[in-house]
Amino acid sequence: MSGTRDITVTVNGATYPVSVEPRLLLVDFLRHTLGLTGTHVGCEHGVCGACTVLVDGDSARACLMLAIQADGRSIDTVEGLGRIGQMNALQESFHTHHALQCGFCTPGMLMTATDLLQKYPLATDDDIRRGLSGNLCRCTGYEHIVRAVRAVVDKRKAAP
Amino acid sequence: MSEAPEMHVRPKIVGARIKRTEDPRLLTGLGAYTDDRQIVRPLHVAFRRSDQSHAKIRLIDSAAARKAPGVVAIFTAVDLSEDVRTLVATSRMKDYHATPIFPLARGKVRYVGEPVVGVIAQSRYQAEDALELIVIDYEPLPVVIDPEQAVRDGAPLLHEEAGTNVLVSREFKRGDIDAVLASAPVRVEGRFRMHRKTPVAIEPRACVAEYDAGRQALTLHSATQVPGIVRDALAAALDIPGHRVRVIAPDVGGGFGGKGSLYPEEIFVCAAARRLRRAVKWTSDRMEDLLANTQGFDEIVDAEIGLDAGGHVLALRADVIGDVGAYSIYPWTAALEPIQVVSFLPGPYRIEHYRGRVQAVATSKAPTGPYRGVGRPTSTFVMERLMDMAAARLSIDPAEIRRRNLIPADELPYKAASGIVWDKSGFHECLQAACNAIGYDAWRARQKTARANGRWIGIGIASYAELTGIGSRISVAPGMPINTGTETASIRIDSTGAITAAFGVASHGQGLETTLAQVVAEHLGARFEDIRVIQGDSAAVAGGTGTYASRSMVLAGGAATLAAQTVRDKILNAASHLLEASVGDLAVQDGKITIVGTDRSISFADVARAVYSEIGKLPQEARGELAATKTYDPVFGTTSSATHIAVVEIDPQTYQIRIDQFVVAEDCGKLVNPLIVDGQVHGGVAQGIGAALYEEVRYDPQGQILTASLVDYLVPSACEIPSIQVTHVESASPTTLGGFRGMGEGGTIGALAAIANAVADALSPLGVDINELPMTPERLFRLIEAAKAETRS
Questions:
Q1: Class for domain A5-80, per CATH?
Q2: Domain assignments of chain A as residue spans, ordered by start
Q3: Which residues of chain B have pLDDT under 50?
């Protein structure tokens, strides 16, 4: 319970040398130590996916990782995607297709979708649905989220 | 799909698929949810919750916990008894027994998860550490867990002072039910069970109270749908005038009714913040959410209809037991859910003779409260199953039996047997539109062939009507005395020309910052993007309750219309002086006032400067504040209606249910933003599918909850939800300003019944009856195996 460990974590390209309690969850570190509150906590047991971030490029649950496990690693969060006025293609597609309502699952959805888009062809909507099945959304019924991801896939295919 | 509104002709802003104002902040991680709030030196609360179903609290020993690292204070009910006045959800209903709302359990506990002790520490980790050091000595009391046993005389009592577990009962009656049923040529009946659900907003509840000791003022940020109701309750409970209590619902991560009541934790953090003169914060974890958030539905319904030989329903009888859990929630009361089952049971059908009886029974489970649909998912499930059962008995097609019984357009408005009045709404149009959209006749033909090949394909229809946008003549919760029938809009143009529109409603995903700005822009003649909407703040208007019961577009939209028109008149008056033209020659559009037929125009900012800032530009009478506050009351409300059709196929080997197609045809009146309406319908249907096939809160016979994680309580993922087609039958409401009808809940109301009917239809060759939801794989397996065994024997 007491004592701290020194770690160095890179978040959205910036490096943070910090001292943390060994039991501190990665998601609490991001939210409350760094103030990056875009990553949300929905269940704290790895089911809902709201806390999904990229760890060295792979999607991971920030509620199932300790901050000290991120020592020496590179984390990407929703704050590292586009900013207001300069949103990236995925964020814009979510906006266009009304793929968010309350917005609470959205950062996790975006990070999972970012991972999927980098790794898989997502040829069918079923592929998209399977890829997103670790992220729960209670508002949208997923329909518009699938359409938003589909539009990014299609645009990518159309690009030379 | 069209995107931004077409701009080449005079644009209609209401009705356009405008992208949401809320989105950019939420898509970039800049949303501001309650737990995101950055506060100087906050204290954190962890609650020690009851692990007993029903027990007397003999002793609480917190001595060791007080010495734990970081602990600042520990409070029990006794410690706070001087700080908090007891609240009670009152009702005008006779035979109603109120139950008190305490921030912490007092004397005894009544469900697993009830907060008993609050630990306040420097960090949440430390507060949770200290919980384990608290010793509570309980004396177990007899379990009160089975609602049918709890209604019986002599059953152990959860609230001794009530003298009964039946917190409220009610009977609706019209006509001579017994005689008509006795003589009806055809009778079908069933015993239906809707199991308990929980809302599972992805943001768990959270609240943080900040106390300004100098001003003796309290600000509560809370993930709530009802900041106005919470403010009023806190002012009463803490004895603070309303201008020193402000409740803000910032970005809220979904609600679905689960954030629609006053909670003990909200009272606790406020009382503790005032006592400690520090900010006090609590954020629920998911287990607390599954234990202690208000839950939904949970009814046993015995129902019967009598029909003539042509399939016309003559009479309907129902006896309902609603399991309301441990307390009558504030302010809606225990009457909310079960009584609406009975008042909405006749549905959109012409039924002359009716008797519906209901008992709301307290058991040692989490209190039930509003959950999307409230009462109507169960009433629609029961009525639509009875319709299909009758159709099968009479060999009438399910679509046709509905055609024969839906109230015809020329009989609307129609007073239903329970007393509800349906105004003109597209009952028949929705049924027809849904049949067309799914290709109903073609599916029936395909089903015939598939059945011959041993495949289990089912088609399920559900039609329903709901009362939305309810005005001041009716309470949204039967008997509840707080007015929920009005909302206020306060619109002003400030000295920079910026437009602010403030409301008492509280968006938690509905996109009201967008849709209300559309209504304001339309009636003010302003540009959509120039309007800032303030909502979710008890200080925004003098009186407002929040967002629930499919009311916000009707009520706040109506108030916005009235206020915007008034401000527009003030702008025109000032502009007529500035342009030296009569008001009748002026047009207002896109934030500019133009002399019609000329190129002479001025902007809202020009007018605002002249009114507020420039000396001598305008005569006194034209310098009135460019602001208006208006309240709207739709008096009765309006009828939304829909037909859902589901096609399912069940795998004869694994019994897995796959939804092949799902269509909704709905009438929510004039659409403000079709993109948002579609999203609401999709989300509602997904919750209905969850409720029909997966979701069930379970307690064991000792009252322990078995569904305390999202591994046990199954929320559907993208793989379980099919693509959903939505068709709009846009008949403007004749009874509301703007013709809007409410539509936030309907998706859930229809979907359960459509799925239940589709599953029953798929299994009809086996003679399996679907009268219990959710139809989990285990239940389906047992039903099919039992049917097969019966066939063999």
A1: alpha beta
A2: 5-80, 89-158
A3: 1-9
pLDDT for position B402: 98
Number of H helices, E strands in chain A: 5, 5
**Topology of A89-158 in CATH?**
DNA polymerase; domain 1 (1.10.150)
**What residue spans of B201-297 are helical by DSSP H?**
227-238, 264-276, 286-292
The ipTM value here is 0.98
Q: Are A111 and A119 in contact (CB under 8 A)?
A: no
Residue A157 is predicted with a pLDDT of 86
Cβ contact (<8 Å) for B717 and A100? Answer: no
- Per-residue pLDDT, B7: 39
Q: How far is B221 from chain A (nearest CA, A)?
A: 16
CA distance A116 to A121: 8
Contacts of A94 in chain B (CB under 8 A): 23, 27
pLDDT at A158: 87
Whether B202 and A140 lie within 8 Å, measured CB to CB: no
In this structure, CATH architecture of domain B486-632: 2-Layer Sandwich (3.30)
Please give, rounded to a whole number of angstroms, the shortest distance from the CA of A8 to a CA of chain B.
Answer: 22
Would you call A107 and B286 a contact, using CB atoms and an 8 Å cutoff? no
Q: Is A40 on the interface with B (CB under 8 A)?
A: yes
Give the torsion sign (CA, A48, A54, A58, A63).
negative
Q: What is the DSSP string of A93-130?
A: HHHHTT--SS-SSHHHHHHHHHHHHHH----SHHHHHH
Question: Coil, helix or strand for B495?
Answer: coil
What is the Cα–Cα distance from B740 to B555, expressed in whole angstroms?
Answer: 9
- The nearest alpha carbon in chain B to A146 belongs to B718
Interchain CB distance below 8 Å, A141 and B36 = no
Give φ, ψ of A106 to 5 degrees: -60, -45
Nearest Cα residue in chain A from B745: A139
pLDDT tens per residue, range A136-159: 999 999 999 999 999 999 999 888
Report chain A residues whose CB lies below 8 A from the CB of B252: 102
Distance CA(B574)–CA(B622), nearest Å, equals 5
The pairing of beta strand B772-773 with beta strand B186-194 = parallel
CA distance A123 to chain B (A): 16
Q: Which CATH superfamily is domain B34-141+204-252+259-292 in?
A: Aldehyde oxidase/xanthine dehydrogenase, a/b hammerhead (3.90.1170.50)
A138 contacts B683? CB cut-off 8 A: yes
**Residue A105 to residue B747, Cβ atoms within 8 A:** no
Between helices B376-394 and B398-405, what is the axis angle to 10°?
A: 110
CB within 8 Å: B25 and A21: no
Domain ranges in chain B are 34-141+204-252+259-292, 299-473+635-792, 486-632
Neighbours of B496 (CB within 10 A): 11
Nearest CA in chain B to A104: B253
Residue B370: which residues within 8 A CB-CB, separation 6 or more? B257, B258, B260, B261, B294, B296, B332, B336, B337, B548, B549
What is the reported pLDDT for B6?
38
- Which of B203, B283, B682 is closest, CB to CB, to A140? B682
Interacting residues of A69 by C-beta distance below 8 A, sequence separation 6+? A26
Shortest alpha-carbon distance between residue B588 and chain A (Å): 29
Tokens describing residue B709? 């994680």
Q: Are strands B638-650 and B627-632 parallel, antiparallel or unpaired?
A: unpaired
Gap between the Cα atoms of B25 and B338, Å rounded:
39
**CA of B532 vs chain A CAs: smallest distance (Å):** 17
Q: Does the domain formed by B299-473+635-792 have CATH 3.40.50.2300?
A: no
Do the two domains B34-141+204-252+259-292 and B299-473+635-792 of this chain adopt the same fold?
Answer: no
Q: How far apart are the first and last CA of chain A?
A: 55
